[in-house]
TrEMBL record:
Protein name (record): HAD-IA family hydrolase
InterPro entries: HAD-like_sf, HAD-like_SPP, HAD-SF_hydro_IA, HAD_2, HAD_sf, PGP-like_dom2
UniProt source species: Phocaeicola faecium
GO molecular function: hydrolase activity
Keyword field: Hydrolase
Keyword Hydrolase: yes
Amino acid sequence: MYEQAITQYLQTHKYPSISLKAVLFDMDGVLFDSMKNHAAAWHEAMQLYGMTLSPEEAYLHEGRTGASTINIVSLRERGHEATEAEIKEIYQTKSDIFSRLAKPERMPGAYEVLLKIKQEGLIPMVVTGSGQKSLLDKLNHHFPDIFKPELMVTAFDVKYGKPNPEPYLMALRKAGIQPNEAIVVENAPLGVRAGVAAGIFTVAVNTGPLPDKTLLDEGADLLFPSMPAFNEAWETFYSEL
């Protein structure tokens, strides 16, 4: 069922096989149903500082560091980048708004597929542009005994956020593996672009409002309509690697 996508990836990157050792998960929109809250918080925060970032546009920026998102909007609307102080203040405002919204639920299907991955002896990793201080506690609460702190990549680990491949290359480095020994699971166009640029087989899971084409155009090797669909397909997909 997935043989064609796998063969095409191997031919493109000239790898003999995918020898899977780790699965690299984006967080927001993949592990947590949190993107609608992030989009709303970005929209409100930018309005408070006289700038416009629609909830719809926020989905297109998903995966960037907060500083990158702020600077893109600031350049467009003010003609210059934000100062370090402004970035810190705007991002804190956005974080405060986000924290007041209803707590995001665990994405359906995410815990189930993570348990299967662990049972296969594979390494699950989080690769996120988030800089939330409470990130590990949040992950441990919703996904107990799944993730190790030394095998996570956050905004604090990289200079360049997605769509730069650095976050996924950092994940490979932390795990001590090669690109053909991992797969990426992403819901965001910029995250897909980052995974593809890192040379990793990239699975897109369309959990948001964007058309499938937006994710496929960034180079996704496979696309699933939801995390439950990815979970249901896992055994077949894994057996074909």
